[in-house]
Design goal:
Layout (H helix, E strand, L loop, with lengths): L1 E8 L2 H16 L6 E8 L16 E8 L4 E8 L2 H5 L9 E6 L6 E4 L2 E5 H11 L7 E5 L6 H7 L5 E5 L21 H18 L8 E5 L2 H13 L16 E3 H7 L5 H4 L3 E4 L24 E3 L19
Parallel strand pairs: 1-2, 1-5, 5-8, 8-9
Antiparallel strand pairs: 2-3, 3-4, 6-7, 9-10, 10-12, 11-13
Length: 317
């Protein structure tokens, strides 16, 4: 198995979590797994434009962890093309991971606006030589949404993502990330189970609602259904975090008299906290958790930015 990770930090605490991960990786049993991890570190007030369309000088550290070696190299890069060249393609099961911040459409935090979802997909496409990845993991907040799945469909067979805010714990901190499994679904479920156990015993962590999605024909059918009915959704109901434009799709369809659960279950293969009822209460902004959801939609652009995304087709007119 080959794991390719892009890990972004932008504060001292995040950098400390990263070093904790590096320490963990020094001793993890890798067997036949090779991890290529590229780390980019920024200051919290730094301004970084999208690197697909802009050149920005960045120091990149590449860590390569395998059964027999642990290597760290330092590079100066300027754009997405430079970043993609840091990863070496390997045949086999290929898992691509983004670890950092996200609002569900942009892989950003404040003024550090490195990538959109499709820019990370382009990175995957380049590194994986135009082949679909076996799995893409969004090790960050709020990417368990139809906007993201629509964007990722051409580039991967499966997606593991969260329909909630995500605690600082990374999937890279689980032993199961580095263990081969008979199926991508079993592999993903083992990771979710282990990170859930870690969250339960860590006082600083909170529960993250992960889902596993298969990029199949039923997803395409569901995408067309959402495009048809999205403008009928009640904007002030069925939201899953503290902003009402993050809405639960199962509930949104239920409110207009359509049961999409049977169709959802054909491509949402697993979710940690199955949703039981629709709730329309606004959560305290200081509460880092969500109402359980299989899949969300983002109906409004989360940040003011002129750079459009493929997921914009789901925004309200």
């Amino acid at each position: 198995m080959n794991i390719y990770d892009l890990y972004i930090t932008r504060s001292k605490p995040e950098l400390e979590y990263f070093y904790r991960l590096v320490h963990f990786l020094q001793y993890i049993e890798l067997n036949n797994t090779v991890l290529q991890l590229v780390h980019l570190d920024f200051k919290s007030k730094e301004v970084v434009p999208n690197i697909r369309f802009n050149n920005t000088e960045m120091i990149a550290r590449k860590f390569t962890f395998s059964k027999d070696s642990r290597i760290m190299e330092t590079f100066v890069i300027h754009n997405l093309n430079d970043l993609s060249k840091l990863y070496n393609y390997r045949s086999g099961t290929n898992v691509f991971v983004y670890t950092g911040h996200s609002d569900g459409m942009y892989l950003v935090k404040k003024k550090v606006r490195l990538l959109r979802i499709e820019d990370f997909c382009e990175l995957v496409n380049i590194v994986n030589k135009g082949q679909k990845a076996d799995l893409m993991v969004f090790d960050c907040c709020l990417c368990g949404n139809i906007n993201t799945l629509y964007t990722c469909y051409p580039y991967t067979k499966y997606v593991l993502a969260s329909t909630s805010y995500q605690s600082y714990l990374s999937i890279l901190q689980t032993h199961n990330t580095y263990k081969n499994s008979d199926s991508i679904l079993d592999y993903s479920k083992n990771i979710i189970k282990e990170i859930g156990s870690l969250e339960k015993v860590d006082n600083e962590a909170y529960d993250t609602n992960y889902s596993v999605y298969e990029m199949n024909k039923y997803l395409l059918e569901f995408i067309e259904l959402v495009k048809t009915y999205k403008d009928q959704f009640n904007y002030r109901k069925s939201y899953v975090v503290d902003y009402s434009y993050y809405k639960d799709l199962e509930c949104s369809f239920e409110e207009i008299g359509i049961n999409v659960s049977p169709l959802l279950n054909k491509f949402v293969l697993f979710n940690r906290y199955p949703h039981k009822q629709c709730k329309n209460r606004k959560l305290n902004k200081k509460k880092d958790y969500s109402i359980p959801s299989k899949l969300m939609i983002v109906l409004k652009r989360p940040i003011r930015i002129n750079l459009g995304t493929k997921g914009d087709i789901f925004l309200l007119k």
